[in-house]
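Annex B. Sample input.
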Amino acid sequence: MFDFGLRIRELRESRHMSQESLGRRIGRSKPVISNYENNIKYPPLEVLISIANVFNVSLDYLVGIEKKDALYINNLNEMQTNIMKLLYEEFTDCNLKGKELSSRQQKILSLLLIEFLK
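Annex B, continued. Sample output.
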């Protein structure tokens, strides 16, 4: 059975965030966050959306429908979005253990560094 409170706690702790700081970001108190994490209370939809936005996860992931965490690129510019898509395409299911990067992979990583270090 899915543990909603544990999902919030894991997301919060993985980002080194206190219950109080999460509460401030979504307009709720520390005790309310504690109630969510202990499955005493469940947040309404607008709060679920706020929590998903804070942690940059889908609502499906937050409530246990989607099993894998996802990467959202909504806040990136067009060049950054294209680089992230190239990264995904090039490195998905790519086993690099003991291998050198191809020239294409090196170029993609170079683009990434140049763009994100601006």
